[in-house]
Design brief:
mainly alpha; Growth Hormone, Chain: A; two-stranded antiparallel sheet
Length: about 450
């Protein structure tokens, strides 16, 4: 039996309710954005998993040699930093685009862009062309998040905004799982390490097929359509008006420190795990799969845990707790002397905190801004920090190229980022119990 419900714009319509008080269409929107974000993470990580095979091949260095390991670490830092720069540019640019042309159109275009850019990496003849294709993909990867997060926030009922935002972000650890499984399966099926990485990159085409389904079944949120009628074109300068300045700076700081923590750690996690296996390639691949799976499982649980924590204690306490525990997790995992098996298991707690905190941004950042500026504001806060975060992998990669001990030491030092997050979190704007502003 149908009953009155709030859909995507606070306009009452008659529609049946389904699981967890969301209509079938609202679940369709959430699932479309979920797929977009999951494949976003999937494509963004493929390089980091294949770098030990990809970089020596493109540089003409013999696989498995000290020179190959050193070059892999250094170039992983360089290319990951470039990814973050492109991600930041795409996130800010497409954040504005999504407020101008719509959430669905932006989601479609960015998914196609990052899938084609990733697949093109399979045909790279040298490391410079690989960097170009990664940069193209990174622009689409960065642009997808703001469109998906804004669309979900505007379509679901107010009381389900936190839940839906977190469910959206569960796609991230699933994307890490998928990247781990895909790389492990392909590299074991095709043992030629000079070529198997190309097959992995080709899997980046998958999101392009999903994108057309998004366009076919998802329409623009009515809330956005109503808000932009006759409204001025959104400008980034508006984010620093007296009404929004504190919200923008607070959201920017939390996202920037979370990004610095995540990318400085996770970009080198496959390399750390592989190094624990020594010269045994089979053991190295197994440890890499176990470490990334532990990180993803911890991240998934951490992401889901933001729902009760944010609702019960508020956003400030949530950020403070995750960052403080993340500091301890990074120091304990990388800074203390453990056997390879124990170190891999401890990665779970890094994922629980450093990865888990990202579940908050999909609901917190859209809460800060009015509808006509939601994509612009959320995209700016979530992505501007990537310019600074891009320095993390570059510095860690340079230090790590000096040896496995140097890598663990560099990763331990990254604990300073979540520590700053814990210190600054009391100063952010609390949005618990607030409704979205039109």
């Amino acid at each position: 039996m149908a009953r009155t419900a709030m859909t995507d714009s606070s306009i009452p319509v008659s529609t049946p309710r389904t699981f967890l008080d969301l209509s079938a269409y609202q679940w369709t929107v959430l699932f479309a954005a979920w797929l977009g974000w999951g494949f976003d993470i999937f494509d963004s990580l493929l390089f980091n998993y294949v770098a030990p095979n990809c970089i020596p091949t493109l540089l003409g260095i013999t696989h498995g040699t000290p020179a190959a390991k050193s070059a892999t670490l250094e170039w992983t830092g360089i290319i990951t930093s470039l990814l973050l720069v492109g991600w930041g540019l795409g996130g800010i640019a497409f954040g504005r685009v999504t407020d101008r042309i719509g959430r669905t159109k932006t989601l479609l275009f960015t998914m196609i862009l990052y899938s084609l850019g990733t697949a093109a990496c399979a045909f790279a003849p040298n490391v410079w062309v690989l960097m170009l294709f990664r940069f193209i993909a990174s622009i689409g990867i960065g642009g997808e998040w703001a469109a998906g997060a804004a669309m979900v926030a505007e379509v679901v009922p107010e009381k389900r905004r936190v839940d839906a935002g977190v469910w959206l972000y569960t796609a991230a650890p699933i994307g890490v799982f998928a990247a781990t499984f895909t790389t492990y399966a392909i590299t074991n099926a095709f043992r030629d390490s000079s070529q198997n990485w190309r097959y992995v990159f080709l899997c980046g085409l998958l999101p392009a097929f999903i994108a057309f389904g998004v366009r076919a079944f998802v329409r623009e949120p009515e809330r956005w359509q109503n808000a932009v009628q006759g409204a001025a074109v959104p400008r980034i300068s508006e984010l620093f008006s007296p009404e929004l300045r504190r919200k923008t700076i607070g959201g920017l700081l939390m996202a920037m420190l979370a990004l610095l923590s995540w990318w400085s750690c996770n970009a080198f996690l496959p390399v750390v795990a592989s190094g624990l296996g020594g010269t045994d390639k089979v053991l190295a691949e197994a440890l890499k799969a176990r470490a990334t799976s532990a990180f993803s499982l911890g991240g998934l649980i951490g992401v889901l845990s933001t729902i009760p924590i944010a609702k019960r204690f508020g956003r400030r306490v949530m950020f403070a707790g995750y960052f403080a525990l993340g500091t301890l997790a990074v120091v304990a995992t990388f800074g203390l002397n453990w056997t390879p098996d124990v170190r891999v298991l401890l990665v779970f707690f890094v994922g629980l905190t450093i990865f888990g905190i990202f579940g908050a941004f999909t609901f917190y950042l859209p809460e800060l801004f009015p509808t006509r500026l939601r994509g612009t504001g959320a995209g700016f806060c979530y992505n501007f920090g990537r310019f600074l975060a891009s320095g993390g992998p570059f510095i860690v990669g340079y230090i790590a190229s000096k040896g496995q001990g140097a890598l663990l030491g560099a990763l331990t030092l990254t604990a300073i980022f979540p520590l700053f997050g814990a210190i600054l979190s009391p100063f952010i704007v609390e949005t618990r119990n607030d409704v979205l502003v039109d």
